[in-house]
Specification:
It contains 5 helices and 7 strands, in the order ββαβαβββαβαα. A hairpin with a 4-residue loop joins β5 (about 85-90) and β6 (about 95-100). The chain starts with 8 loop residues before the first strand and ends in a 10-residue tail after the last helix. The relative contact order is 0.17. Helix content is about 35%, strand content about 20%.
Length: about 200
């Protein structure tokens, strides 16, 4: 994994925006911390899936069996709003949840991810994926941002907390601290909190 560069943080009006490279490196750290149970896609996955379809992303998991994991994380970039959200897939709970720090809803995204799982299962396992019993949810009570530039930080923290089953007990006031934490952890190539493998 490449180290973080200063240019990977974009500064506007003295406020820090996280670009896709920072988010990708952080998602890599989340995967590397719990490789047997967690897999985080990079920020280009959803864009390719929506614009080009399953045939253009099927090879992304050529060496990875996502169905052997317990959790999947998919960062979502909403281009028209320049806004980051997160999709969390739990195979144990049979759920696909959408976390938006500005309270948005996106059933189109949830349905697309479910369809992806069906196609991926058929392609890699040669078996039909039964969608019955799966819950698709726009999470209403997740932490909310109070500005327009912290969405990337929220996405990283949503994934970090959910990956270790921690309650989402943070808020806007923690964002400056989280920015510093993200920078330090990427530079050290290791997340501060550990997760026992089960």
């Amino acid at each position: 994994m490449e180290s973080i560069e200063d240019d990977d943080f974009e500064v506007d009006n003295s406020h820090l925006f996280l670009n896709d490279e920072v988010i990708n490196q952080y998602m890599d750290l989340i995967t590397e911390r719990s490789p047997n149970t967690v897999y985080a896609f990079n920020t280009f996955f959803y864009l390719s899936l929506t614009e080009k379809g399953y045939s253009h992303v099927c090879r992304w998991t050529k060496k990875i069996d996502i169905f052997s994991k317990k959790k999947l994380f998919i960062p979502i970039h909403i281009e028209e709003d320049n806004h980051w959200c997160l999709v969390y897939v739990s195979f144990q709970q049979k759920s696909i949840k959408y976390y938006d720090s500005m309270g948005g809803r996106n059933f189109k995204c949830l349905k697309l991810i479910l369809k992806y799982l069906m196609l991926e299962h058929e392609d890699k396992k040669g078996e039909y994926f039964h969608p019955s019993g799966w819950l698709l949810m726009n999470v209403k009570n997740c932490p909310q941002q109070q500005n327009y530039w912290d969405c990337g930080v929220f996405v990283c923290m949503f994934a970090e907390y959910l990956s270790r089953d921690a309650p989402l007990n943070f808020s806007q006031r923690h964002m400056d601290k989280f920015r510093r934490q993200i920078t330090l952890e990427i530079k050290k190539k290791k997340l501060k909190k550990s997760v026992p493998e089960t």
